[in-house]
Design goal:
Elements: E1 5-7, H1 9-27, H2 32-40, E2 45-49, E3 52-61, E4 64-74, H3 79-93, E5 96-103, H4 109-114, E6 118-123, E7 126-132
Parallel strand pairs: 4-5
Antiparallel strand pairs: 1-2, 2-3, 3-4, 5-7, 6-7
Helix pairs in contact: 1-2
């Protein structure tokens, strides 16, 4: 049974945009308007979870599609462990060859690494993480870690 449900941003914006703004303020990382614009223009997609939500934006990067996790929020711990498999299925359904996310939350490094992600860039306190979706470890030859 699917835990992540595609939802309409205009319907949920009054409830969820304040979470984006509060998270932006808490992490001192400006992104709320960018995420809002991507959702309003239908470049990104909102998925609701029983305890949070995630915003995915398909992007053409390099030789294939990337599922960029623009934002994720959850009221409980271990969201990555609970939702990563389903996020991967959604990404594969969109023909993505990898997933990507950026974060300023340093404590995510350990769980991301445990779930098969690799840090590929770190700048101004923001880290970029990538996870190949096809072929497993052999694809890491094309991903340079920092």
């Amino acid at each position: 049974m699917s835990q992540l449900l595609l939802a309409d941003w205009p319907t949920y914006r009054p409830m969820l945009f304040p979470i984006l703004e509060q998270t932006e303020q808490n992490n001192d990382h400006k992104f709320a308007k960018e995420v809002d614009q991507a959702l309003q223009s239908s470049r990104a997609f909102l998925f609701l979870a029983p305890d949070g939500f995630v915003v995915l934006e398909p992007m053409a990067l390099g030789d294939g599609m990337t599922a960029f996790i623009q934002f994720g929020w959850c009221s409980r711990a271990n969201a990555l462990a609970r939702y990563q498999k389903e996020l991967e299925q959604i990404a594969r359904a969109g023909n993505a060859v990898q997933m990507m996310l950026e974060t300023k939350v340093a404590k995510l490094a350990i769980p991301l690494t445990k779930q098969g992600w690799r840090c590929v860039e770190a700048r101004d306190g923001i880290t970029r993480w990538v996870k190949p979706l096809h072929g497993g470890d052999r694809e890491w030859a094309a991903v340079e870690a920092v």
